[in-house]
Structure formats: C-alpha cells, structure tokens
Amino acid sequence: MCFHGEPHTVLENLIKEWEVRVISFEKDSESIWRQRDNLVKEMCARHNVQVIECVSNTLYDPEEVFSLNNNQPPNTCEELRKSCYKIGDPEQPVPKPDLKFIATHLVSTDNLYDPVKHKIPDLEFFDIKPENEKQKECLFVGGETKALDLCKIRIQYEKESFKSGKLNPNLSKPVLFTKEVSLSPYLRFGCLSVRKFYWDLKKVYVKNFNGVKNLYCPVEQLFWREYFYQLSYKNEKFAQVDGNPMCFKIPWDYHGKQDLFLKWETGQTGFPWIDACMRQLLQEGWIHHVCRNSVALFLTRGVLFMSWERGMRTFLKYLIDADWSVCSGNWNWIATGDPEEVLNPTVTFCPVKYGRKIDPKADYIKFFSFILLKIN
Q1: Is the pLDDT score of 206 beyond 80?
Q2: DSSP letter at 233?
Q3: Per the confidence metrics, is the pTM higher than 0.85?
Q4: Cα 356 off chain centre by
C-alpha cells in the first residue's frame, strides 16, 4: 500500500485508525531529512507510540563515529578508518527471517486497500515525461531479488581478480556499458545491504587474494562512501559552497555561460569522450565512475571553470544512483573543494588523451555520439 502526503501527518492518521503501538524505520544518515524524521518521532511521542530507528544505510552509526571525534566528523578518510578500527568491524547482516511464525499473527489488509487511493504512483503522477526514447526503457530492474543475483555475479568477478593478485578490477579495466549492471543503484535504494556487500567482498578477499593482504583494500570504495555520509551527517549545507565548512571558496562561474553549460549537459561540447559520457547519462541514467570524474573535471577546474553545484544538480536529476551525500562529496572533491588532502589533486587531464586511454577503439564514443570526429 502506498500513502501520499507529509509523513508525520499520514502516519498520525494511520496510528489512530489502526491503533498502532510501534513504528520502525531506517535511520536516515543525510542531514537534510532529519527534520522530517524528527517530526515523525515527536508525533509518535505525543501518541505514546514506540519508535525503533535502525542504522542500515551505512556501515557504522554516524553518532558513534562522531562520539569518538569530539562530536565532529572525521576530517580525513584516514581519521574515519581509525574511528572504525576502535569500534570494530561493521555488524554482520542479519539472517533471512523465518516468516512462518509471523505470518500466523498478521492481520489481512485486503479490506483496507483502495486500488485508486493506494496505488504506486507512475511518472505521470509526478508530471515527469521522458526526454528521449531511451529513457522509456527500463535498464535497472529494482528489488532485493535482482540485487542479490547481481551481487553474486559481482563477487565472483572480484574473486577471479583476487586469485590473479589484482584489486578493484572495475577501476583498472572500467566497464562503461550498462549491460554489465552496476550495484550502485541497489545500494542507493536499499535493495542491497551495504553490510552484506562489505562482508561478502571481505570474505572472498581473505580466502582468495594472492599477495600481501590489507583488509581495507577490497572495501576501499565503500569507505569513501562512508566518509561522505559522515561528513554530511550534521552539515545541511554540504551540497553547496556558501556556508559549507568542508568546502574551499573558489570564484566559480555560478550563473553565466549558460549556452556552454547546456552544451556540456546535453553532450554537445565537441569533445567526443565528454559528449559520449553525457549522452549516456541522459539516455540511461548511469555512467561509470571514470566518466563521472571526466565530465565533472571538464565542467569545473579542467575547462569551463563553472561551479560544481551546477553539475551536481544535473547528476541529481539524471543519475539513478545519485544521493545527496555521495554525489555532493564527489563533486566537491573533483573540483578540489574538499579539504581532504588525498582528494585534492593539483593535476588535471586532457579530455582527448584520457578518452583515448579509456576507450582506445572508440567503441563507447561511437555508440553514444551521433557525430564522431576523426580520431587518430
């Protein structure tokens, strides 16, 4: 059943109607949603309803990490690792529940369901229309069943890499096409537990990696994800420059060059590699991390010197796996706005040479570019 309206108002009506005594939900680790959750908890307190708030979107409870850093976020990813080392390993994912006992105590809601009032909304409900024919296609099938199937494939992929003594195979040999489906949308929407992925990856690494083991290496990308969630946990201005203590103040172009910005956004810059990346984003709602870095660098300190906030808003609009914390953190990093030294490179790269390096046969560029310039 799907309900529409302000969460605290909808839940208050259901509490009265259904005589609810306990409400459980996932603790949101992003600060911009805290007011919403606080309104729900305050309403529950007024009605003597117990609230069970569980941490599952992150590996660690941000409150516990903050308590080890004088109520401050870790300034660097290394500081985060030290805090996590003190806490210990993340909790193991809970086993699959046995629903046989619970099923005998469930009350049927068939008589409560209204097919019009409670239906899952479609795009028309939100007045969202596809901008091109490709957007009408469903490239990512949602749900936990699909996520677990893809997780098994990914773990096997990592296992073969570990056996050959290599780490992060999707960084050294990026898979640019969405036919090799990424797990990021499933982590983003909670279809796949980040803790399950963490433990599955770590176990297969310990068992199969031939080389000097460093237990942080196989889960490095998950710790960067964790780092951005920790940085933004109590910072409601994390997705902007003004008032953001975690961002360098650089005199970006915030509003001008709109014609150039639109050419970047629609993949019409004249740089084949950049245009192919942006066209894939607009058509499929996903691009590989190396593509994201390329177009972000091009928009900011690489070529156009425009504010990373403008690019971030484009990503939040089109990326199926975009979330507020990680998307903002990555844009802040690529624009050298993040004070984390490791994420503050002083070099840039050529959008032509880099495209040749990642896509030497131009298969990717040919697939997504309508007009392919001669590449020698």
Answers
A1: yes
A2: T
A3: yes
A4: 28
